[in-house]
From TrEMBL, chain A:
Protein name in the entry: Uncharacterized protein
UniProtKB/TrEMBL annotation, chain B:
UniProt keyword list: 4Fe-4S, Iron, Iron-sulfur, Metal-binding, Oxidoreductase
Species, as recorded: Euzebyella saccharophila
Lineage: Bacteria, Pseudomonadati, Bacteroidota, Flavobacteriia, Flavobacteriales
Stored SUPFAM superfamilies: FAD/NAD(P)-binding domain
Keyword 4Fe-4S recorded: yes
Protein name: FAD-dependent oxidoreductase
PANTHER family: COB--COM HETERODISULFIDE REDUCTASE IRON-SULFUR SUBUNIT A, FERREDOXIN:COB-COM HETERODISULFIDE REDUCTASE SUBUNIT A
Gene3D superfamilies: FAD/NAD(P)-binding domain
Amino acid sequence: MKIQLGILLIFFAAIGFAQFGPQTPFSDRFGQNSMNLPPEFYSLEWNGGMQLKAKPTDLSIEIDSMGAQEINVLVDLKDRPVLYTSDISTPVCADGDCRLMDIRLYWTLLGEYAGFDRYPNSPLTKHDHDEFLSADYRKLHQLLMDDNSILKRRKIDELVKKPEQPEMEGVDAVAGATIKEVKESVVGGALYSCYTAWHLVHGPIKDAIQKRTLSLVDNDMVLRMLGSNNTDYQMFALKRMTEEQYAANYLRIAQIFEDGVPLIRTFIVKNLPDRFWNSERLQIPFWDNFSEVDINSRSLLLDNLKNSPVSVLENLSQELSVMTKNQLNLYLMHLAELKQIKPSILTNIEIFANSPSETYAYLATDFLKDYKL
Amino acid sequence: MKSILLILCFYLISLGLYGQDLLIEAESFDSPGGWVIDPQFVQQMGSPYLMAHGMGNPVKNATTVVNFPETSTYHIWVRTMNWVPGEWEAPGRFQLKVGDTDFEKVLGKRSGWGWEYVGATEISTKFEKVELIDLTGFNGRCDAIYFSAKNEEPPSSPKKLASWRMTIAQEPNAPKQHQAYDLVVVGGGIAGCAASIAAAEQGLKVALIHDRPMLGGNASAEIRVHTLGIYGHFERILKKLDTEHYPNGSAEAKLDQKKRDDNVKSYENIDLYLNWRAYDAVAENNTIQYVDARHTSSGERKRFEAPYFVDSTGDGWVGFWAGADFSYGRESVDTYGEEWEEWGELWSPNEEDNAVMGSSVLWGSKVMDTEQKFPEVPWAMPVAKAYEEVNGEWQWEFSRNDLNQIDDAEEIRDHMLRAIYGSFSNAKEHPENATRRLEWVSYLVGKRESRRLVGDHIFTFNDAKAGTKFPDAVVQETREVDVHYQTVLEDEKNPDFISEALFYKTPRYYIPYRSLYSKNIDNLFMAGRNFSTSHVGLGGPRVMRTTGQMGAAVGLAASLCKKYDVNPRQVYTGYLKEYLDLIESQKYIKIPKSKQ
Ligand SMILES: Cc1cc2nc3c(=O)[nH]c(=O)nc-3n(C[C@H](O)[C@H](O)[C@H](O)COP(=O)(O)OP(=O)(O)OC[C@H]3O[C@@H](n4cnc5c(N)ncnc54)[C@H](O)[C@@H]3O)c2cc1C
C-alpha cells in the first residue's frame, strides 16, 4: 500500500468511518493479490468462479505531484490477461483547495473503462467534504462508462462558467452542450472529482493498454473476446477473424447478431464473408432473427435478398408487418423480378394486403395487381 | 382574382361527356389562412401542398374562390395523406367546405399520398368559395382538390399522376418564359447568397432561385441554426449574411434574417426569385443549358439560361438533374484512409454503406402565465416512447439506413414531428410544465448531409488532418471535424431521434477550388454542403461560414469565367494567380473610386 494512502487511512480513521450500505468487503474482492469477485462497479460480465491474480506491468499513469502510479494486469488461473487495474491516489483541486482522491480503477484489455472499487476507509467526497452516497457512486460509474462524455473536450474552467456568460466557442454539436448537460452527467457537488476521474480513466493509458494487448493477441484471446458480451471485444474479434474462423464460429456470430447492439449487428451483416451468402446453412441463422433485430440491421439483411434461399423469402412473407415502407418495397421488388413466386408467399402477401391494420397494405395490393397483369 | 387564372380545366369531349373538370392546387389558394405552404417534397410526392401546422391548435381555414365554368353536379376528391397511419385517429384530420356545403367526410385518413373522395355536390353559381377546415392542428395536409363531372378517381401512382396533372392543366413541363443571366445560382442558403453577392460585385448579372420566402437555408428564421466557422478571406461578404451565436432554435434568428434579406436585395444585379423552386436542369455535351423553376404557390414556370450555374441547393439537385457525378453515404475506411481507430465503425466503416448524418427539426416551448393544455398524441408515442423534453437542439437528429435524406425527407420530417410532440406531451405530465406551451416547431427539415457532387478534387478527412496547403486553397477553416451518429446504434434503449457527435481536433485546413466545380459537367460550380467531399471530410466544413466561403469563392471564379470565356476548370489551369489575387483583395475593404 502506498504511503499516501496510509496517511489518508489514518486521517479517515481519525474522523470516523464512512457509512456504507451492505457491500462485499473490499478485501474479499481483492485480497492477497487475488480477486474472486467482480469490482463493486463493473461494466463487463464476470464468469462465476473466476479468480484473478495481479501481476505488475511496465505501464503506469503519471499523476501530478504523486508520480507514476503502477498499472497491474489481472490474469486468470491460466495466466491469461483479463483486466488492468491501478490503485490511484490523485489530488483533486478546486479553487486552490486540494484533497486526495483514492480509487481503484479497472480497464478492459482494450483500455476501455471496466469499473472501479472504492476504498472502504477512504470514501469519495464532494466539494463540501460530504461523502458520496450510493447513488453518487452509481452516477460516477455511469459517467465513466461514457467514453464520449461532455467532459472530454472541455477544460475544467469551461465547465463551471456562470450561466449568464455566453457559451464559449461554438461547434455544431457543442453549442448545445450547455452547463445543464454537464450537470446532468456529473455527481452533484463533485465536478472536480468526476472530471479528474474521467480524464484518468480515458487518458493516454487507454492507448498504452491497447498497445500492450495488441502485442499479446493470439487466437485464444480473439475467441475469448468473441465469446464476451462486451461490444468492443466483439468488434475487436470480428475485425481480426479469418474467413475460416467466421465459418467455424457462425453460430456464435449469429448469437451476437441476435443479442448485440445495433452497431455490432450492422457490422456483422456487412462483413460476413461471401461464403455465408452462398451457403444456406451459414446464412439462415441470421435471417432467423429478422423480426427481432433493429431496422438498420434488417435493411442490411435485405441487401442480401438476391442470394437468399426460397425458405428465407417464404419466412419473410410472414414478417411483412415489421418491415418499413422501403424495406417492404425492396422485398416486393425482389419478388417481382423472380420468374416464379411460391404460392404460399403470394397467399401471405394477400393476407397482408387485406389486413386493415397494416399501414402499408396498399403497397402489397399494388404489387398483387401488377403481378397478376 | 388570382385563382381564376389558376383554375385548370379541360373538356371530356372525347368520352362524349359534357362536363368540366377542375384541379385546384391547394398551394394556390387565395388565402392559406393558418395553413403553411410546404414545397419541400415536390420531387417525391409531386407538388407543394398546404399543411395545418398548428402545433396542436387547429389553424384558421384556408380559402379560395373557384370559378366553375359550368354549373352542374361535381364529384370531389382531395389529394391528401394520413401522415401517421395506425390504430388511432389520424392526427391530421380536416374537412372541406364548398359554398355553403360542409362536407361531413373527414379527410386526411388514407395511407400514402392519394385521393380521398369527399362527395358530390350541385354547383349552382359560377364563383364558389372553397375552404379547408383543420380539425386538429397536427399537420393535416392537402395537395389538391379535384372537381369532376365524372365519378372517376384520378390516378395515385406518382408517375401516372404527373402526366395526368399535365394533361388536365394543359400545361407543358417546359416553361414558355425564358430569362438569360451571366450566372444562375440555385438555393439561397448562406452558400448561395454568398455566391450571388460575390459574382454581382464583380458585375455579373445573377439570378438567385430559392424555394422559400426568406434567405439563409438552415440559418434562416424558419430553421434557426446559427452560423459557425471562420470568415477566411470573405469577412465583409459573410458578415452581411451570417448570424449571432444564439442557441440553435432561438427566436433571435429573426433579427439576422432581416439583415440578410435586406443585404441581398440591395444588389441591383441580383434578381432574387424567392418562392421559386428549380425542378430540372438540362445538359448537352456536359454543359448545362438551362434550369427550369416553378413558383411554389402560383405554379408559374420559368426557364433560366446562363453560361454558368451554381448548385447550392444542399442536395445537389442541379448536378443530379444534369448528370453530374455524385456520392451519397459513407465510403469504406480504406477508400481514402479516413480511419480514426478510437471510434472505428462509428467514424468510418470497414465496408461502405448509405449512412449519413441526419436531419433535424428544431423546436422550443415557453412558460406562460396560465395553464396550457396539450392534446393527447397517441400516434406520437411509438416514436417518442418515454422520452421527455421541452425543447430541441442539434441532437434532435434522425437518419436510418432505409431512409434517404432526399427521397424520404417527408417521412424523416414526420418522424421528428412525432418525436417532438410525443416528448413534449411526456414532459407536460409533470406539474412543473403545466404552464408550458409549444412556442415554435419548425416544419422544415434542417439537413446536414445528402448528395455530394464530385469535383476534380474530393476533400477528405486527411486533407483536414494534414492541413494540406493546396495551391488553389480558397476556403479555410479551423473548426474541428465532427461526425454524428445515432445513439440508438450503441443501445437500442436510446431514442432513435437523438444523435451524438465525435470531434477530431485539426490544425487550420484548406479547401481547394477544385472541390468546388463538377468533374464532369463543364459549367457547374457547387458551394455548400453538396461540395466535393467524402462523408468524413464534410464533418468539418459543413458549417455555414465555411459554406459561405465556398459560395464567395465560386462567385469570384464565375467572374473570371465570364471575363475570359472559359469554364470553371480553366480558371484553375489558366488563371489561378489572377483568381487567388482577386480572393486576396477581398480581405481589404474596398475604397470607392470617388475617394481614391
Ligand atoms: C440542427 C442542425 C444544426 C447544425 N448546427 C450548425 C451550427 O451550429 N452552425 C453551422 O454553421 N452549421 C450547422 N449545421 C450545418 C449547416 O446548417 C448545414 O450544413 C447547411 O446545410 C449548410 O448550408 P448550405 O447553404 O449548403 O445549405 P442550406 O442551408 O440547406 O441551403 C440550401 C437552400 O436551398 C434551397 N433549395 C433546395 N433545393 C432547391 C431547389 N430545387 N430550388 C430552389 N431552392 C432550393 C433550400 O430550401 C435551402 O434553403 C447544422 C445543421 C443542422 C440540421
